[in-house]
Amino acid sequence: MIGENVAGGLVGTFALTTIVRIASEIGLTRMDFALILGTMFTTERRRARAVGYGVHIGLGLVFAIIYGGVFTLIGQSSWWLGALFGTLHALFFGAVVLNVLLPVVHPLMGTPDTAAHEHALIEPPGFLMLNYGRSTFLVMLVAHVTFGAIVGWAARG
């Protein structure tokens, strides 16, 4: 059971990461989640991206195991149930975690309280990540729905 969740988490995280990276490259979003995650640990940009991707893969595995635990609790799993979880995941993270919590704990991210003389190196995502472009939330929603669908599909057996 956990093997299916880990496999689904790896494939789902790869798909999510690919969707966001392509969207960034074609100008649909300015979100660079690897840089955001990585700069929580280092200020060196090249190293930050590498660390950020590592952290993101780890988080993908953790969330896949959590999804799998919920599937086990409710006694059902499917791609569409995983997609629903991915939708809820994207909504919660876009509205609460990235908007409220991340700017408070990230050492280099600006907040509404950042003074002009302070040097915030990273712009906060804002509500539904709108500070990174109008279509950013849509990109993240599609990416997380895809992640959830893959994890749900992998956990079905």
Distance between the termini: 8 Å
Uncertain spans: none
The number of helical segments is 5
Instruction: Return the average pLDDT rounded to an integer.
Output: 91
Beta-strand content estimate: under 5%
3D architecture notes:
Helix 1 crosses helix 3 (45-74), helix 1 packs antiparallel against helix 5 (136-155) and helix 4 packs across helix 5. The termini are close together. The radius of gyration is 16 Å and the shape is globular. It has 157 residues and is mainly α. The chain is built from 5 helices and no strands. It has one domain.
Task: Please give a handful of descriptors for the protein shown.
mainly alpha, 5 helices, 0% strand
Q: Brief description of this entry?
A:
With 157 residues, the protein is mainly alpha-helical. It has helices at residues 2-25, 33-38, 45-74, 79-105, 136-155. Helix 1 crosses helix 3, helix 3 crosses helix 5 and helix 4 packs across helix 5.
